[in-house]
Amino acid sequence: MNIFRLAPVLSRPALLSLALLTTPLADAQTLAADALNTPLTLSVEGNSLLPEAQLQQLLQPIAPPLNMAKIRARADALQAAYREAGYGTVLVLLPEQTVERGTLRLQVVEGKLDQIYVQGNQRFERDNILHSLPGLARGQTPNLIAVDTNTQQANENPAKSTRVVFQPSDVAGRIDALVVTRERAPQQFTLGLDNSGSESTGHYRASLAYLHANLFGGDQQLGLRGEVSPDFDARSKAVSLSYLAPWYTLHSALEFTASYSDVDSKAIATPAGDALFSGRGDALGLRYRWYLPKHSAWRQKVYIGLDQRHYRNDCSVGLLGAAGCGSADASIAVRPLTLAYDAQLGTQFSANLQLVYNLLTGGADGAAADFEAMRTGAPAHYSLLRGSLAWQQALSTRDVFNWRTQFQYSRNALVPGEQFGAGGLTSVRGYQERELVADSGLLSSVEGLHALLRRDDGDAALYAAAFADGSLLLNQRHTPCRAQDSRCRIGSLGLGLRGQYQQHLQLRLDAARAYADAQRTARGDYRLHFSLAYGF
């Protein structure tokens, strides 16, 4: 009979947290000499999480000569298997035992959840917090991958953030979960004012937005927004609606959007008489998101969406009427399918990639003839690739560097509403909004921020900004994006201010000088952009 004795390693978990745990195995107290040359079979007690086939593969018999290093390696492999499956609170123990007939017993403590404590919630009910974390269930071993994915999705709610901490329970072999929340009011109104308009449609845009971040108690979000041009008799107006329903058990969400806009331009004098332009647009969208498990420190999600956008244009030139407008009087409807991937590394880096294909054609203003009337050579079944990258790096306690880029590429001639636009406050500053458009385009911007004033509690801050923006645009079929050029470049340099007070007031002010001609901006022109938002 071959006998050797092993010391106990751990009787119960001593420390449990979201960090994945490993447990060292003790050396043998005694090891009979004849046991060194006998094959050793490993058995597992207490497992209900890993399939039996996986256990057998991991715990193949140990061939002689035996030593503690070989035993430790097998137990570590089993611990790693639990960790990779998401069960980081599971411990693999090697209890004190007498090994007979070549069999060694490993004990698994699965760390089932005993109590769940919620801390910091005042506006959101406890049931709401736990509804967003279905990976936490009393009496079950929490899967940390699932809990982390739940937390990622729950923290996209703008009115709350959630953090889960695991800690030892008073019950031996079990753990407790502490859910720490930070909140703001679920219902928010935001007043906005900016100068993103144009001379023909009014320079200013005033907006009112409403958000309910917990509509039916399950984190459903309803957003409403209205916008008018206060300096143009409100003849430029837009309204939009959005609704988001999260499904935490499926790590997914369904989003619906709808919008309508109506813009009437001022009359433009031409040799044939005054030209009058008006445009109306409506859009519907449905998108389904999947939240993927975090890879290393990267948070990921994919989505599929189907949209319908209808661009309706009216034009009249003097006595010629619509006949004097050409394609400016054409209307078009697009129904693209979008597949997209998002990745984010904390608040430092983010990336997005979208593949767009106009799937459904026909119907009112959606036939091939309508696309041809809007633009010669534009196919109804067009495709394009879009993407963006953003990077933020703190250089010191007062200085931050930002870089962002956006691109679109298409081998097709696109109708205007689907083209890449350059110019404006969030694009190339110093130019009007979407002053240049093309089928393909690249935008890049670098910006440095320096804190002029900042309260220690973060409630108020004022930053100075210096930036450089640039964009390259390229059209198919030699269609000009500026004068006679089908390949256009614009760029700018400027200075600005960023102001913030608590979570209520946001101010952005940018002054930029244009370094290339565009449609309405000449090289050397200066433009001031501003945006003001007040939330309550």
TrEMBL record:
Any one Gene Ontology cellular component term annotated for this protein: type V protein secretion system complex
GO biological process per UniProt: protein secretion by the type V secretion system
Domain Polypeptide-transport-associated ShlB-type: 43-111
Keywords, comma-separated and alphabetical: Cell outer membrane, Membrane, Signal, Transmembrane, Transmembrane beta strand
Residues in Haemolysin activator HlyB C-terminal domain copies: 179-443
UniProt-listed Pfam families: POTRA_2 (PF08479), ShlB (PF03865)
The keyword Signal is annotated on this UniProt entry: yes
GO molecular function: protein transmembrane transporter activity
Signal peptide span: 1-28
Protein's recorded name: Hemolysin activation/secretion protein
Organism annotation: Solimonas aquatica
